[in-house]
């Protein structure tokens, strides 16, 4: 059941403006997740290009280490751009985040490999991934706040689901690009220049997103703060105030399944199937594509349900489904049968979609406008850095030590337990006014 606060009114944008806002948010999420997906799907190739020959397993761990280090900078970007969003506006923070992301992603596509620049190429790759970490850390909360604060309360999760679906679609496109290239190019060409193509595609996408975002007005919630003279001078200080401690604690725990599940079930999946279960690289991409396609379709459907019945029922159902299905799903993957593997990917993708469809509305609705994006960024990005970006590195290293192929299933299921506890303790927030909430 939705809370009584769901009847509280909220000034929102016109339908035409809301459509533009939703599109702008979706483009940013697409570019953000496109890079991470391409990096994850091509991790095996990147390891060959940027590290010396003769230690493939170690090179792969280092490749995922660079992937993980970029996530350490997400909380930094989240706080810096979150404070900018709360003090200057959601739109400027969104524009800056997208510019940094698209530029860094295209830069990776231009980097020389280890054979040309040695350790210098590795350090440059690390630097560009750090820039991406900063940009993504600010993008998530600014873009989602931008969409959510423009949306009518009765359709907030549904409209916010399109950027979310855009992120899984980005992974699907990255997956398809990697599959097409690895299937059509010989290994030598792939290692020489083919791997660069997906990264360079980010440049024109960034230009389009930049143009759209520059044309938009800021959100009704932020404009109301400006009109009332209530823009926070130090939103980070307000985040740690005594009256905000409970919400902040929930903000660190709620994203556990989102963080672990997204990167384990989608980004890490092709490399896991290739390196640990002896699937071909193309087969691993196909299984991941099944999971992504099913999740992309299911996300708006679950979001619409949450607008009607509340966030908590959808989130709890998704957590329970993941806890129950994770190990059986990975046992199906272990069989080596492509039909069963694709089925496992599809089922896990749909189960995860329930969580993915409501995590951002829940985070958005936890906090008042004057510190919303700062608090949201801090909780979401710290958890993502610990459980998301580090997941491929942790699981690859543990596999070398234990040879246990069910480790990803246990990892995701345990993260679902944490999220379920936080969702149960959280008050229902569906329909909450984002301007009147203080």
Note down, in words, how this protein is organized.
With 438 residues, this protein is an all-alpha fold. The chain has one domain (4-425): MFS general substrate transporter like domains (Growth Hormone, Chain: A), CATH 1.20.1250. The protein has helices at 15-41, 43-50, 56-72, 74-87, 90-110, 114-117, 119-150, 156-184, 187-194, 196-200, 202-214, 220-228, 235-239, 245-253, 256-267, 269-276, 281-309, 311-334, 338-364, 372-389, 391-402, 407-425. The longest helix has 32 residues, at 119-150. Residues 3-11 have low confidence and may be disordered.
Spatial extent as radius of gyration: 21 Å
Which CATH architecture? Up-down Bundle
Q: And the CATH topology?
A: Growth Hormone, Chain: A
The fourth-level CATH homologous superfamily is MFS general substrate transporter like domains
Measure the end-to-end span.
22 Å
Total number of beta strands:
0
Q: Which percent range fits the helix content? A: over 70%
Report the biggest beta sheet as strand number plus sense, adding barrel if it closes: none
> Treating each run of at least 4 consecutive H or I residues as one helix, how many helices?
22
| Helix-strand string | HHHHHHHHHHHHHHHHHHHHHH
Structural class: mainly alpha
> For the residues shown, what is the average pLDDT?
86
| Oligomeric state as shown | single chain
Subcellular location: Cell membrane
Organism: Streptomyces dioscori
Main location: membrane
Transmembrane segments: 36-52, 58-81, 93-111, 193-212, 250-273, 285-302, 314-333, 339-358, 378-399, 405-425
